[in-house]
Specification:
- By secondary structure, the chain is an all-alpha fold.
- Helices cover 61% and strands 0% of the residues.
- It has five helices and no strands.
C-alpha cells in the first residue's frame, strides 16, 4: 500500500478540489462564461449528486455495513443492489457531481480542469486500495461484482 492509501477522507479531498475549482476560476477570469440557465444547471447537477450520495448511504445502512471509507476491512457485506447495480462507487460519483455543479456555478471553463484530479486521486488512493481489501475479504463473489459493474459509471 502507498503512503496515501486510505489516509485522507474523501470528503476532505472533495473540499480541497472544491477550493481548487474556486481558485482556478479566480486565477483565470478570461475562461469565464455565463448563461441564464447556469444556476439551474448547477442546481440540477448538485441535487443529482446529493441524491446519489444519499441513496448509496441508505444502501449501506440497510445492509448494516460500514460506510467509513477509511476502514473497508470492517465491511460486513458487499452491497450490490440499488444504486450499486450501476456504479461500484456511487458515493464518489455523487461527490464528483457536486464538484461539477460547483464548477458550473463558478461559470469558468478552466475550473473544470480540477475535476480529473479528484477522479485520479480517489481512484488511485481510495478505490483501488478498497478493492484490494474487499477482494481479499469477499473473494469470488466480489470478483464477479467487479466484472459486472463499472468502477464509476
Amino acid at each position: 500500500m502507498a503512503a496515501l492509501d486510505l489516509k485522507i477522507p474523501p470528503p476532505v479531498v472533495g473540499l480541497a478540489v472544491a477550493g481548487l475549482v474556486y481558485g482556478i476560476a479566480r486565477l483565470v477570469p478570461e475562461a469565464g462564461f455565463d448563461h441564464p440557465l447556469r444556476p439551474w444547471v448547477a442546481l440540477v447537477i448538485a441535487v443529482t449528486g446529493l441524491a446519489i450520495d444519499l441513496s448509496a448511504l441508505r444502501a449501506f445502512f440497510r445492509h448494516r455495513t460500514t460506510a467509513n471509507p477509511l476502514s473497508p476491512q470492517r465491511s460486513s457485506s458487499v452491497v450490490t443492489s440499488g444504486i450499486y447495480r450501476f456504479s461500484r462507487n456511487p458515493m464518489y460519483l455523487g461527490m464528483l457531481l457536486l464538484l461539477t455543479a460547483w464548477a458550473v456555478w463558478q461559470g469558468n471553463g478552466a475550473a473544470f480542469l480540477a475535476l480529473p484530479l479528484f477522479v485520479l486521486y480517489i481512484t488511485v488512493f481510495q478505490i483501488k486500495p478498497e478493492e484490494q481489501i474487499l477482494r481479499a475479504k469477499f473473494g469470488a463473489p466480489y470478483d464477479a461484482y467487479l466484472r459486472r459493474v463499472r468502477r464509476w459509471i
